[in-house]
Amino acid sequence: MKKNISALTAVSLATALALSACGGGGGGSSGSSNGGSSNNNGSSSTPPASTATSANVTTPQYAADSAQLAIFNTINQQRQQCGFPALVENTQLDQAAQAHASYMGQNAGTITDTEVAGNPGFTAVTYADRAVHFGFPGSQTISPGSQTVYAGGESAGYYTNAKLTEAAYGQQIAYEWMSGVYHIAIAVWPITEIGVGWNEFTYNGYPAIQSSVSIANMQPLAGSLPLTFPCQGTTGVPYLSAGETPMPPNTSGSFGMPVAVVGNTTDTIVLTSGTYTDTSGSVITLQILNSSTDPNKELPPFEAVAYPAAPLTANTAYSVSLTGTRNGVAFSRNFTFTTGNIVG
Question: What's the pTM value of the predicted model, to 2 decimals?
Fold first, then answer.
């Protein structure tokens, strides 16, 4: 069985200061490899300005019981219970994501963020460029000082020697992203729009899957910042993640469910300590990753991540204790989440 996750690339933060940021990563699954993954690592270009308007839909248009709908619903369920804004389907981002998923399928199923001109199915090099190609607005500021347009994305692959329902495949991909030290961004960044792409072909008699999401439109967060994912009451998240590209520091390739701490995009979040404590009282000291200490240069300043260097235990409650600063002001967060019997 297998899964591959390529690094998320965040491009084109349209603000009065023309900010940009990069992120990346991914989760794992109970699987064996059928391909590689890659990371754009900040080489993306900002797309040109566009006069096109965003094509949001009020009710998701993904087919019932489809993998795309399962991805959309799973991500939104986890985001909303932790106070993050729900994502709205955008049909232009759908087209961009679908084009990239198809591109990966036409190129031996290789999981990648970027596309190469001349390869089968080429649309544009970066997530942002592909979004603009399908009419999504480029750099645009609606009101002075407000951050309104952003385009980026994540990609993943999955193969297992068992046939699942399409909805189960989609949920698996969603949890792969949400359990990655870098890809957890899909659950916590203050984006508001998403498009989902999906491609399948048969490998050794079973589906080999390539999926991509295009994400966009940063908006200010509500509530008592910073927010976290997981948060109090989160259940069913993976206990193990593997196959992240780039590999998180101080891991052997697999690790436990991370926790991300996020503020507004103008904030600087710095974690100083983090622990998980299981029901037996065993304390796990978490690896701390801030933007300033990330050797892979993937985390933006408004996001920090803490994670166990080894897998957790399935179906187990963990008490979380975090301390840090938001723009130099101290904060602490204490809550409990529960893993499921899921490998991300």
Answer: 0.85
